[in-house]
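debug: dumping io for the single-chain case to check the tokenizer round-trip. Nothing else runs in this session.
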Amino acid sequence: MSSAPLPLTARVRALIAQHRGGCALALLFVASRAVAYARGLRFDASPATYFVQIMDVELLLTDLLRTIAYAHTQPPLYNLLIGLVLKAFAPDDAGFALVFGLLYGTLGLLQTLALYGLGTALGARPAIAFAVAAIHMLLPTTLQYENWLLYSHPVACLVVLAAFLFERALAT
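debug: decoded output
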């Protein structure tokens, strides 16, 4: 005897109840970033034109693939991403900063949720894992790196995500 499927609203409520901590962290993340934006924190995309880790803008615009291939000592995927966004927006254009601001913000949310998930998966009480993830999310250094065009934030996010996914793979 099979049970009838739950209506959509009941399924959403059940999913939210099951992932209460993650939903609360997501809401706190959005609220904290809105407050930071209201207080004047903006994404700084200016390093695209002068940081040594980022290839010359003119090279990324005119000869992207050869620049990535020959300058492999610089972060190649990071420079490829910057070059692709440069193809659509100039480095001083608001769209360039908007694209990277949204990307880095998404990575920040992903890092927060992965940190919470990793904490609970490793046996921490949900309240402790929530507190650690929330404190990390609200640290001024986290906010600063999340709003600065440098590869430190994406690398930190990928390390936490890799640890979370590694734990999930071991658990299954």
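debug: round-trip ok. The two ends are 29 Å apart (CA to CA).
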